[in-house]
Amino acid sequence: MKKLFFTLTICSLVTHIACGQTPNYFPQLTKIRVDGGMNTVVFGYDKAAIKLSRKKCTQFSKNSPWYCPDPDAPVYERLAIFKHPQISDSLYVLFSHGPSEDPNFMIATKSGKTLGTVNGLQLFLTNSTTFYVSGHTNNLFDKRRKFQIKNDTIAEITQPFYYVGLQSVALKELTLYKDKTSKEVVATLPKGYKVEVVMAEFGRPDFELEEHFLVRTDFGLIGWLRLNKNEPWESYIKGLFFAGD
Questions:
Q1: 29 vs 24, 165, 217, CA distance in Å?
Q2: Beta carbons of 140 and 213 less than 8 angstroms apart
Q3: Residue 185 CB neighbour total at 10 angstroms
Q4: Which tens digit of pLDDT belongs to each residue from 158-201?
Q5: Cα–Cα nearest to 80, from 70, 88, 90
Q6: DSSP class per residue in the chain
Q7: 67 and 57 Cβ atoms separated by less than 8 Å
Q8: 11 to each of 27, 44, 221, 243, how far by Cα in Å?
Q9: Is residue 113 in a domain?
């Protein structure tokens, strides 16, 4: 009994990864799962401000801009409806698995105007003006982003860096530099060395991959890893790879 209690206590203290659980981001939101693809997709929303209203394209009236006759076409499914304080038309949250497993969310008006699309596996709509997106899809890591809905567009909130948090090993000899352009070397790491990819440079648009990552050595040094476009992205660190085609 004591051993069981100790095990349960430790599991509650260690990270969700170690215990085999998914993180419970935004516990105040109601969450649903969107099936149909290779990856688990989650949509979270505030029940007080957002109305869950799932409808596939074939279920819309034929005069709707969101109607499509082919149920197997790579088109969008509506997940929810909400009102924005500065937009007269109702807004939709839509999701598509894409033509070749390219999961993405769209914010658009009922009348068919697209405000923006974002690649991702999770979208959390915390209120009628703000949402968060995460997911390792069409990028090199699980990218976490925040957006504001403004008038006729969506705008990403600027961060100093993107958090990566990947604890892994070097797949080949790596060189870490003082900054993104300097020749000054912080450390040279052998193949198989334990590393943590802490952060990535901020500001690359969707489908344009980051080339600079802050990496922590097992000893605790920090330096910039520079990826070479002429080498495979997945050849540097295990788990750092392009998830897409």
A1: 10, 24, 37
A2: no
A3: 11
A4: 999 999 999 999 999 999 999 999 999 999 999 999 999 999 99
A5: 90
A6: -HHHHHHHHHHHHS-TTTTT-----STTSEEEEE-SSSS-EEEEE-TTTEEEEEE-GGGS-TTSTT--S-TTSS--EEEEEE--TT-SS-EEEEEE-TTTT--EEEEEETTS-EEEEEE-SEEEE-SSSEEEEE--SSSSS---EEEEEETTEEEEPP-SEEEEEEEEEBSS-EEEESSSS---EEEEE-TT-EEEEEEEES-PPTTS---EEEEEESSS-EEEEE--TTS-GGGSBTT------
A7: yes
A8: 19, 26, 29, 30
A9: yes
Q: Which residue has the tokens 């209690």?
A: 5
8 lies in a domain?
no
Structure pTM? Answer: 0.87
Q: What is the CATH number of the domain that holds 174?
A: 2.30.30.40
Q: Which long-range contacts (CB under 8 A, 24 or more apart) does 150-155 make?
A: 150/86, 151/86, 151/87, 152/87, 152/113, 152/115, 153/115, 153/116, 154/107, 154/115, 154/116, 154/118
Q: Which two tokens stand for residue 127?
A: 């209120």
The residue out of 157, 185, 212 marking a domain boundary is 157
CA separation, residue 177 to residues 186, 187, 201, 237 (Å):
5, 7, 14, 16
Residue at 33 is within a domain: yes
81 in any annotated domain: yes
Do 223 and 145 lie in a common domain? no
Torsion over CA: 144, 78, 49, 35 (sign): negative
For residue range 34-43, what is the model confidence (pLDDT) as tens digits? 987 888 999 9
